[in-house]
Each structure stands twice: as C-alpha cells, then as structure tokens.
Specification:
Number of helices: 10
Oligomer: single chain
Largest sheet: 13 strands, antiparallel
Number of strands: 17
Structural class: alpha+beta
Order of helices and strands: EEHHHEEEHHEEEEEHEHHEEEEHHEE
Helix content: 25-40%
Radius of gyration: 24 Å
C-alpha cells in the first residue's frame, strides 16, 4: 500500500490507497484555519484534497510505480479550488488566484520593510502557484502541457510594479493574480498586494509574456492548442492601466553612473537556464549611488526585456538621472523653467523655508537604466528600465 505524508500545523496528514484511512485523515483538516480564520468551507477543502489524493493514487494503481520527483511534487492534473499547504484559493469566478503570505525575516532589509527583490519573487511565486492550481502545469517553469509538446517556454517582455507602501516584517498580505490576453500571441498577468490587517492595496503589478522555443531561443506564435488551454482563464481586469506606455530611451556609454563586468552566478539561473528576471533589478540598483538608496525607496519600476542573459554573458549596468524635468507631488513631470506660481509644491517648500532645492529633494526622483551584454564588436541590450523613487518612510 503506497503511503506518503504532509505536515500541516501540528498534525500529519497521510494519504494512502486505503479509502477508509484516507477519509479519516482528511477529516483532520476540519480544524485547519488560514491565519486563524477559516477562509473556505470545510467541504471545499475535503473535496480538493480528496481529488488530489485520488489523482495521485490512480497514477500509482495504473503505472505501478511513480517517479520520485513526480511523487514529491504531486502536480495536480485537474483544477483545484483550494491549496491548504500554500494557503491559496481560486477566486474571480474560478479563474483568478489568491494566496496569503507572511513577510519573513529574510525578505526584509535593514529598515524592516520587504525589499523590492522579495516582492518580485513573491509575484513570481504566486503566478506559478496559479498555474499549479489550474491543472495545466507540466514539468516546465510555468509551461502548460501544450507548451511542453511544442517545446515552448514563457519569457517576460515587459513588467511594471508600483509600490505605495512596502510590507513590513511579520505582516500578513494577500496577493491576487489573474491573466488576460495581450495581442494575438501574448498573455498579460496582473497582481494586487493587500495588507490583510488594513485591507489597503500596498502594491500592484502588470506584465506581458510571450513564448520562446526552448531549443532555437526564438520567439514563437501561440499554438492553437495552447490558446485553447489558457484562454478560458483570461479576464478583462487591470491592476495598472496605461493607454500608451511611456517609451524608455536607450542609454549609451556616456551615462552618468556605471557598473561594469557583472557576471551571472549559477544561483542566478532559473529552470529555463537563463538569468531570472528578478536578478536584473539587483544589477540595476548597483549602479545607483549609495546615498540615493539609503534615503529613498523605489515607488515605480518598469522593465522592457530585449534578450535573455546567459551564464557566459558579461553585463554592464548603466544609469542616468532624469534631469530634464522634476516630478512634483501631483505626479506630473514639469520643465525646470516652469513658473513658481504654477508650481504649488515648489512654492510650499519655499514658504516653509526649505528653499528651491528643498522642493527638489522632497519630490520623486527618476532614473533611466540599461543592462547590456558586452560583445566583441558591439554591446547587446538585455533590458531597459525606468525607476521612480520617493523618500523612505521610517518604520519604528
């Protein structure tokens, strides 16, 4: 009789091919609560776990043996409504996903707030868990069964994240994510991060994904069988809506700040054997002066991906402050020679005695970024970026 165990809270749940034993152990889930609150009816948890266990042991019965990796992952082959192990739920009429998480000590910086890298990693994790719950996940990095048959993988082409307030250490957050169509051959994925304590939206993100052939490393059209898999999950809902995305200019070697000879480490590679997109943010930040990083927090980042970065690439990080204009408190970019009578934030700072420069220091800062791979004859763009920064909020 095949048996395996999962730890949940202080008890152990054992799933076995003996139905009587399975039903007894499933009943132990009646007392499971997510962050102290029962977020779904017990019957839904029973059904979800029953389906997962049945799927697993049907495979055991049919094949006699299951690969160790398959047994340990136990990827669902059918749509699941609840995942008590990841504290995840299917929402939005059966197509969206919500996951409850706690900000851990290793996800925060010296100021006790989650780092941008941690936030991006959480967005990536919830996206993958959404596909996991859908029953479409193959053994690839978020790839569906149809994508694996066509030797395709997902690559992100554009991403934007806006942070109003960074989660703090120990805070419980809910992350909602969903997908929608992006043109004929792309997919859009959005996120909302909420504080469970206040209900306020802390951050929001949007991204565009396209398919690439795993072998040729060339972009590919979306096969009809893949479209048939994922299109039922598409909804028309936007976390960030831009009518016309602002173009990011390309920097050259005359950029004010540089960091050269950056080399990917083995730990920077993901399951698709290229540098994970979250690592690019770290390289970008390394080109920004320390005094900016120490006194400011990033409130908006936009990334436009041009090509993948491999383990053998040598990368340059270029950064240029936006000195063509100042962003005022209303978020509007103004020319430096604007009238003070029309610039209330400037006037307010002057009346406070902080002078003209005081208004500049307190207003958001903008930077343009470029990561490029050094080539023998010319450098190749990896990703263009734009960041907006605001003064840090001190957490006691």
């Amino acid at each position: 009789m095949a048996t395996f165990s999962y730890p949940v809270s202080n008890s152990i749940i054992k799933c076995s091919s003996n139905r009587d034993h399975h039903e007894i152990n499933v009943q132990k889930l009646n007392n499971i609560k997510i962050n102290g609150v029962s977020s779904v009816p017990t019957t839904k948890i029973d059904v979800a776990l029953s389906q997962a266990a049945s799927t697993c042991f049907a495979s055991v019965a049919k094949n006699g043996l299951v690969k160790d990796e398959q047994l340990r992952q136990n990827i669902p082959t059918k749509k699941q409504l609840v995942d008590p192990y990841r504290q995840g739920l299917i929402i939005e009429g059966g197509v969206g996903y919500k996951q409850t998480l706690v900000i851990r000590s290793y996800e925060v910086g010296p100021d006790k707030t989650a780092t941008l890298e941690s936030i991006l990693n959480l967005l990536q994790e919830t996206a993958l868990n959404h596909v996991w719950m859908s029953g479409l996940l193959s053994d690839g990095f978020g790839a569906t069964h149809g994508m694996m048959r066509n030797n395709l993988i997902w690559v992100v082409s554009r991403m934007q994240v806006q942070v109003d307030q960074y989660p703090i250490w120990g805070e419980i957050i809910d992350i909602d994510t969903w997908v929608g169509a992006s043109g004929k051959n792309g997919m859009r994925r959005d996120w909302l991060i909420r504080s469970q304590a206040t209900g306020h939206v802390l951050a929001r993100g949007t991204s565009t994904w396209v398919m690439m052939n795993r072998k040729t490393r060339r972009l590919s059209k979306m096969p009809e069988e893949v479209r048939a898999e994922i299109s039922p999950w598409f909804i028309e809902k936007y976390a960030i809506k831009e009518d016309v995305p602002e173009k990011i200019v390309k920097l050259d070697d005359k950029a004010k700040y540089k960091n050269t000879d950056l080399k990917p480490k083995r730990s920077d590679l993901d399951m698709n054997q290229h540098v994970n997109n979250v690592k690019y943010v770290r390289w970008m930040l390394e080109a920004i002066p320390d005094h900016i990083l120490e006194s400011n927090q990033m409130s908006d980042i936009t990334l436009e991906y041009r090509r993948e970065c491999g383990s053998s690439d040598i990368v340059q990080s270029l950064c240029e402050p936006d000195e063509d204009g100042i962003i005022l408190n209303n978020g509007v970019n103004q020319d430096n020679d604007m009238s003070l009578l029309n610039g209330f934030p400037l006037a307010a700072e002057i009346f406070k005695g902080n002078g003209l420069m005081g208004s500049f220091e307190n207003g958001p800062l903008r930077y343009t970024h470029l990561l490029q791979a050094k080539g023998k004859t010319q450098n190749e763009e990896i990703v263009r970026g734009r960041t907006v920064w605001k003064k840090k909020q001190i957490v006691p």
